[in-house]
Here is the input.
Amino acid sequence: MSKRLFAVAAGLWLSGLVAVGQGAPQYAKPTAVVDAPTFTKDVAPILYKSCTNCHRPGEIAPMSLLTFKDARPWAKSIRDKVSQGLMPPWHADPRHGEFVNDRRLSDAEKDAIVKWVAAGAPEGNPADLPPPPKYAEGWMMGQPDAVMAMTEEYPLPASGTVEYKYFEIPTNFAEDKYVQAIEVVPGNRAVVHHVIVFARAPLPPAPPPDVPRPQPQPQPAVFKFAPDMEQPKDPEREAKKKGPANDRPAPQRMGAFVGGFAPGQNLRLYEPGQAIKVPAGSVLVFQMHYTPNGTATADRTKVGFIFAKEPPKQEMKITALINANFTIPPGAPDQRVDAEMTIQRDITVWSMLPHTHVRGKRWEYQAIYPDGRTETILAVPKYDFNWQTEYIFKQPLKLPKGTKIHSTAWYDNSAANRSNPDPSSEVHWGDQTWEEMQFSGITYTVDPAPAAPTAEVKPGGGK
Here is the structure.
């Protein structure tokens, strides 16, 4: 990630610290108000619930808000960002779905912060201060049961393009593990653009030559992708992108996706009774996307797991809906790119994560049911590359066999997009930030097959 992008990702607050932005609400000068909200009684509980997970020492936010002394210098900025809806960051359209991880403050919470600042941001009675939240040092999810890090401190240049690097970390698990929480912690946030963690299970041993080999049994497919979304990339364009041999190339087998890190998204907690399976003997594969920032440095990223205490009732699975075959013309302000897949079995969808790069501007997802009914299941009208959120449905989606999931992303390749690295370029799918993606991560479970009907037995043995 460039230095500029990291600054935006880690500190959206900073844009409003010197002067109130255009169109921001204006407030009267602080006055003494009887029964005005105080930090200890009214504001601290809000910050503890919604802000200090990031706004504390060692985390991604640029300042701590754990104490009155920490928060008081930022009072007006807190007011402005909360009033404008920029903090806490949340981008889903509330008209389409409710989400477990909705970070928005209530109107009453916003009002308390505005009135606190208008009254001069008083501290209040120290006796009213609730106990501060307890965090495991370096971890948002709490103390992990297992931590696995890259086996090397990988050096990174000060400049240039770094191809995706792949690092393998043996788990040495003697038995299957069910992961209820996973958190990826970059070793160097300034240069880690994103991380994807795969778990590659060992291949079963080959039978002796004189033992008949069992014929593989066909497994029922879960998804079928629209043919026009599976077209290969342009070979000529891909050939032009070839550079020196990668010193940490992709392995032949990646394994199943288990978690990742991207700006605004590094932690996944599953509900009790749900977990991701990591088979015994698995090897973790870290796919690392590095973006030099002007200073030669190094990185050693790690992942933490919290294990379920017993095998889950629901084994969570993750798939991706992708369209890698598109062209965004130079200067196009609102280019549309679609993708679609058909569900081949009854499934339950638990979450969706839309992903584009800096030209992405909005997303929309529809479920098209077998009876022809169409429902918008998620809309992100102001997609922000700096906050890539996994939207976890409060009411999971039951999608019957034959349902189509259709995704649409819009891109702004014009000069009006201040994040656009080059409005004059034609843009295609690519790994780097100045290229683009149309990618959606989907977490789901396969519903049990309906029980076979049984014949009714009548008295006397007849049917």
Observations:
- The helical segments are 3-10, 39-50, 68-71, 75-83, 107-118, 235-240.
- The chain has a mean pLDDT of 85.
